[in-house]
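Quick question, first post here. What does this chain look like in 3D?
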Amino acid sequence: MRPPRPSVVPILALLVALAFFAVWASGCAPTPKPLSPAATAAFHATRVVAVLDVFRDAAIAANSVTPPIVTTASTREVVLWHKTALKTIAAVPTGWQATVKAGLFEFTCHPMAAPLPPPAPPPPCTPRLKPGEVEKLIPYVGLALVVINEVQ
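> Answer (accepted):
Ran it through. Tokens below.
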């Protein structure tokens, strides 16, 4: 007889708590003062890369539980999007924010990533992930968007 499987809710709650702690802790670290503009941009990009890693890791963790919360195909999409976002950040060190936010909007249709100012309604969007799966990953997308907006 197999032992009972742990519930998925505590695992996801722990991941969300760790992600928020990571953002809180990184928010406590101001940009070191004697940095050049290029070094300051790299400092902020590193913070965003860490949060995007949390988004990718959450999708992988959600796929690894039984039954999977996120399908393997959707997890693959998240990993490929993550890889593209990191390439964008590396290629354009001082102007990647709008591109990464637009990619997040196209990928998840999160209203905070919409290309219009907040009072305007977001444009129509169909997420590349299944609706139920997008809802599971929305906290991590929101976390990434908060950090991206902070470093702009």
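The chain has five helices and no strands.
The chain has a mean pLDDT of 82.
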